[in-house]
Specification:
alpha+beta; DUF4065 domain-containing protein; 51% helix; two-stranded antiparallel sheet; two-stranded antiparallel ribbon; 164 residues; SocA_Panacea; 4 strands
Length: 164
């Protein structure tokens, strides 16, 4: 499975343009899940082509979660590691600030020169993205995470297993 890192980067740019409150790697991951879940429910396909596993606190994207861990921990990757290409592509669109907190590391996204390119998305995809972003724009990470546990598929999935 190849996730669409270009679409992910552009959704982050859109979220930055929309001034999403508390936007960090955790909130982004949950919002991507909600966007993909809603879109899949309505149209039978995901936008970002990512898989999500059930974690104790919220659904986690499999590949993007790995990428965020690599960035947060400053890991060096082999030149031929596909994740390196994904990180480089993400960094073509955004700057990522690593904030070390007392008990965790947080990633903050910063806009550079690139503008959000809505032509990458279908009309239906744009509608789904805008609905989810508008709905959770002001919410804290915890509130967005809590809302995912109201989804039957999330509640039913065993911990550590793929939700959809």
């Amino acid at each position: 499975m190849k996730i669409d890192i270009t679409k992910i980067a552009n959704v982050i740019l859109y979220m930055l343009d929309e001034s999403i409150k508390h936007l960090n790697d955790k909130k982004l991951s949950i919002l991507l899940f909600l966007i993909d879940f809603e879109h899949f429910k309505k149209f039978g396909q995901k936008i970002f082509n990512e898989e999500y596993i059930k974690d104790k606190r919220n659904p986690e994207p499999v590949i993007l979660g790995e990428i965020f861990e690599i960035i947060a921990n400053g890991e060096d990757l082999e030149e031929d590691d596909e994740r390196l290409y994904m990180i480089e592509e993400l960094l073509e669109y955004l700057d990522i600030e690593i904030l070390t907190k007392e008990k965790f590391i947080e990633l903050k996204f910063l806009k550079m020169e690139e503008d959000y390119d809505e032509s990458l998305f279908t009309k239906e995809e744009l509608k789904t993205i805008k609905e989810i972003v508008k709905k959770y724009k002001e919410d804290s990470v915890r509130n967005v995470a809590n809302s995912t546990f109201q989804i039957e598929e999330v509640r039913r999935a065993p911990l550590g297993e793929i939700i959809f």
